[in-house]
Specification:
283 residues; mainly beta; 4-stranded antiparallel beta sheet; 3-stranded antiparallel beta sheet
Length: 283
């Protein structure tokens, strides 16, 4: 009986030796793999990628000691993550096995070159996104591609200056519109168009004589001062203050209760108004 037990134990030991590996055996649960330098070694059959050794027999082309992608070696160790290898790695949205753009995948593999994806691709002047793609960048001003207005059209071309008058545009410098400075209450000239196509410019307009302005108040005005044609202040009864920006007059907030009789400034952002009871208002 002791002899039988010893033989059974020896047989069990043999069974536990597992997979032959060069001149030894790998334990159960391990595999025998060939090192890139030559020779063989035992490795856990569960996680060969991430051990810092490139196991070519298992299809690895890299192994940087971790299982994170986006660092020059993919999470499965099957790609060095260059754009153009035909494998869509972390940070890539496409990879068509070349480094040429204009074929449905950009040269850096970060765009599928579709208008509305938020990436200005070859042939596109802009792309502020559509659908679930949010607008990014200062020119987009928080607005997606649109046929009605904003920075970028729905075909990824810039609205302003395209020679078309979109529904939300006031003007377009390349659009031949029959505009007159009379629209801005001037006597002659053709108005210009702002760089954003949302307002007319009166710099090319002129007057033959004095003309009436809508001052936005019916209160008597008793003082006026300006730093230039686009920056004029007027003051009057009941503490009223109005400002002209070259196109229109608008009311300004005032803390004065009595009448203001004079206004003066050292510049556009340093203006004083004076009036009854020693009142001094300053902007």
């Amino acid at each position: 009986m002791p002899l039988a037990i010893a033989m059974a134990a020896a047989a069990g030991g043999c069974l536990q030796r597992g997979v032959p590996c060069d001149e030894r055996y790998c334990p159960n649960g391990y595999i025998c793999i060939k090192n890139i330098e030559g020779g063989f070694r035992c490795h856990s059959s569960d996680l060969p990628c991430g051990d810092g050794t490139i196991d070519t027999d298992l299809g690895e082309v890299c192994d940087d000691g971790n299982m994170e992608g986006g660092d020059g070696c993919s999470a499965n160790c099957r790609s060095k993550e260059p754009c153009g290898d035909g494998i869509i790695d972390k940070g890539e949205v496409c990879d068509d096995a070349n480094s040429v753009g204009g074929d449905g995948c950009s040269a850096d593999c970060r765009s599928n070159e579709v208008c509305g994806n938020g990436v200005p691709d070859s042939g596109e002047a802009c792309d502020c996104g559509t659908g679930d793609v949010p607008p990014t960048g200062q020119p987009c001003a928080g607005r997606q591609n649109s046929a009605d207005g904003g920075y970028c059209r729905d075909d990824c071309q810039v609205h302003c200056g395209d020679g078309r008058l979109a529904p939300e545009e006031v003007c377009d410098p390349a659009y031949a519109a029959d505009l007159s400075c009379a629209r801005l209450r001037y006597d002659f000239g053709r108005p210009g168009c702002s760089g954003s196509c949302d307002s007319l410019l009166a710099s090319s307009c002129g007057d033959w004589n004095w003309r009436a302005h809508e001052s936005e108040t019916s209160t008597s005005l008793t003082g006026v001062w300006g730093s230039g044609p686009g920056d004029v202040f007027a003051v009057g009864k009941d503490g009223v203050i109005v400002h002209y920006d070259g196109l229109k007059w608008t009311s300004q907030p005032s803390n004065a209760y009595g009448s203001l009789h004079g206004v003066w400034g050292s510049g556009p952002s340093d203006v004083f108004a004076v009036g009854d009871g020693g009142t001094v208002e300053r902007q």
